[in-house]
Amino acid sequence: MLIAKNISSYYGNIQALDNISIEVNKGEIVSIIGSNGAGKSTLLMTLCGIVPAKTGSIIFNDTEISTLPTHEIIRMGVSQSPEGRRIFPKLTVYENLLIGDPLKREKDINLEFIFEIFPRLKERINQRGGTLSGGEQQMLSIGRALVSQPSLLLLDEPSLGLAPIIVKQIFETIKRINKENDTTILLVEQNAFGALKLSDRGYVLVNGKVTISGESKQLLENPEIKKAYLEGV
Ligand SMILES: Nc1ncnc2c1ncn2[C@@H]1O[C@H](COP(=O)(O)OP(=O)(O)OP(=O)(O)O)[C@@H](O)[C@H]1O
Ligand SMILES: [Mg+2]
User: Fold this and answer.
1) Pocket residues: Cβ below 6 A from ligand 1
2) Ligand 1, closest atom to CA 188?
3) What distance separates the 2 farthest-apart alpha carbons in the chain?
4) Does the reported pTM lie above 0.70?
5) Which residues pair with 14 in a beta bridge?
6) Residue 139 lies inside a defined structural domain of this protein
């Protein structure tokens, strides 16, 4: 579904991604793990055209997307829930969800599945985003990304700053989105253990480079990964 090859991205003169290649197959959950500043968010932003790829190619369903603007990439079926959730605190839950619709269809948007997996959002539909708890804001951020009915959903640190019980719920919901809504998922996490438990395959990013990749089960057993990312878990 997605083949990114030899991607390099920069912020001015600072190189954030160094020749990265990753692949995501239809139906998979793939995780990207790595510590602070490794380039995880930059990778997701490059895939959806927010940060330009200076080198390499990004093929999504046989189409080169690395030169397309973000709204075109969203229309093709790629959508992102960004790091830090980025919900609009003064807008209601419903208004926040509408922002996820690139076609601005408003009346035609289908929120049924989103409300099925996040009944809390339905209960709070007229409440302002800023009054939601951290976990609810995360649900809203994922819900908003689902409004455009992506076939590939990019999730940037959905567990960040949430209590363990809420993290568990969010991870279970990610699995449901993958299974019940037929959505392929690329998941960025600092919670390496949780992400690898959830995913089929994973990539480790260090200083903008992929250092290790493979099946998540194997990565969980990898001594180098255990030492760097899983100790104390
Ligand atoms: N807007 C920016 N301007 C300049 N440099 C940036 C910018 N955003 C990120 N960087 C740099 O790019 C590199 C990769 O950052 P990125 O945010 O992609 O890492 P990350 O793996 O998502 O980190 P975190 O776990 O903290 O979210 C870092 O060296 C970071 O300092
Ligand atoms: Mg990040």
Assistant:
1) 11, 14, 16, 34, 36-42, 83, 190
2) 22
3) 52
4) yes
5) 11
6) no
